[in-house]
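Need a sequence for this fold. Nothing fancy.
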């Protein structure tokens, strides 16, 4: 039972596909160091690589190999029952593949993107922290409407810079008075903001952050903005044709 609990469902799904591929090439006599389960041949080099890269904790290699044997036996049974050919299974594989692909892209972008700050940025951030902003916020239900500035609901409000959300703070630093920001996501809505006026804040801060603290905070905010802008840029470059017919729910048919 311990082995069964250690098997991850998604690994099984993808292993089914690999099993089918590898089994075609397993008709020749396997090497004496290969692991053979039914018709599935796992060469020693592949076995050793899997052992070195495994993320689960095993007492020893015997336990690891027994886990593989059980997994392959279950895969063989799933294929024998025709599960690999079912549409539902194929959708599961496709959905997980697409999610993993997007996650890898986003993780890589966060790691590879370069962020640089200059003293002017820090000075502007310090000044903004002591300012009171009068803003107009436009809310849109979809990105498409936000891009086209269509059906936006305006909402005027004012607050001290430090009381605003981080997504607003970093955008205000890049925005000139009376200028409309580019759209950005906020929960299940999309937002554009416009600065109506800026004045000194009457709020007295309990402590003054150091230059290093300001730098670290602004660096984090700038990273977030770069990442979100990159996503919006990818979306903006997509060539899209929208269906003219509205989608219906299951109970509308």
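Here you go.
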């Amino acid at each position: 039972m311990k082995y069964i609990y250690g098997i991850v469902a998604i690994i099984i799904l993808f292993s089914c596909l690999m099993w089918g591929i590898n089994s075609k090439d397993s008709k020749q006599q396997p090497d004496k160091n290969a692991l053979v389960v039914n018709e599935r041949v796992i060469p020693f080099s592949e076995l050793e690589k899997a052992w070195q890269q495994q993320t689960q904790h095993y007492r020893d290699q015997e336990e690891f190999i027994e886990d593989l044997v059980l997994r392959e036996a279950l895969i063989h049974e799933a294929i024998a029952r025709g599960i690999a050919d079912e549409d539902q299974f194929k959708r599961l594989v496709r959905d997980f593949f697409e999610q993993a692909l997007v996650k890898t892209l986003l993780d890589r972008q966060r790691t590879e993107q370069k962020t640089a700050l200059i003293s002017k940025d820090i000075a502007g951030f310090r000044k903004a922290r002591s300012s009171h902003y009068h803003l107009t916020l436009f809310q849109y239900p979809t990105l498409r409407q936000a891009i086209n500035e269509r059906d936006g609901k305006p909402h005027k409000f004012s607050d001290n810079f430090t009381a605003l959300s981080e997504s607003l703070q970093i955008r205000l630093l890049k925005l000139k008075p009376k200028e409309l920001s580019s759209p950005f996501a906020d929960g299940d809505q999309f937002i554009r903001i416009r600065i109506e006026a800026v004045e000194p804040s009457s709020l007295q801060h309990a402590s003054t952050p150091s230059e290093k603290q300001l730098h670290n905070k602004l660096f984090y905010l700038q990273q977030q903005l770069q990442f979100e802008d990159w996503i919006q840029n990818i979306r903006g470059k997509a060539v899209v044709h929208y269906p003219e017919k509205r989608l219906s729910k299951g109970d509308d048919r």
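For context: The longest strand covers residues 189-200.
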